Amino acid sequence: MTLLRDEDLAAAFDHAARGYDALVAANPGYHAHLRRSARRLGLPRRGGGLRVLDLGCGTGASTAALAAVLPGARITGVDASAGMLERAAAKAWPDGVTFVRAPAEGLAEAGVEGPFDAVFAAYLFRNVSDPDAVLAAVRELLAPGGRLGVHEYTLGGRRADRAVWTLVCRGIVQPTATAFGDAGLYRHLWRSVVEFDTAGRFAGRLRAAGFEAVRALPLPGWQTGITHTFVGRRPRTESEDQG
Questions:
Q1: Which of 3, 35, 116, 192 has the highest CB neighbour number within 10 Å of its CB?
Q2: Can you list the domains of the chain with their CATH numbers?
Q3: What CA–CA distances, in Å, run from 144 to 6, 116, 118, 153, 218?
Q4: Is the separation of the CB atoms in 135 and 221 below 8 Å?
């Protein structure tokens, strides 16, 4: 199968929205790992007075992680899927959490404007057609010194990492997703990971996009070597950027 992109991918997520929360709840550590990645942003004052963009928020799991770690922040969740966003918006949220429907490539057209103190993106970049263009847009939305956190399936590069990922997808995820009628989306999930950057390559992509202090941090449990947190920062001055 070819990878799902743009409108086709958004439509697949629309259909999957009804069973999405139940499926991810079966993933050991899913929500705890998102909270860990949110903490790795290293934002001060529990987010007090800060603006945070949750790019590709889905049904709100990443938004909930940010709200738990940064209760003082104003959080804007953005997603291209109307079905996923409807599920997210229907949940109970603290003041300061809002949602906007927009593709990652069309934030300005949807009225999403910076500066943000941080951008967080979970399970997003391997799903966009042009990750470098999205990274450039994200960089412009960040305030100078603003932080980027990416939580993504990025294989570590060992054969064992791909083998474990394939085993989990074919033995657990895809049979469960088929029962919900979403087999195509989760076949895309498997392939999108094995065809995307390794962790080292994605860290290099962030540096090439102009982010500094980039780090790739593993996550524990069965996802070690499969899922990573990436953190980086927009330089504070133009001279830093050029240096």
A1: 116
A2: 6-234 (3.40.50.150)
A3: 30, 9, 10, 28, 26
A4: no
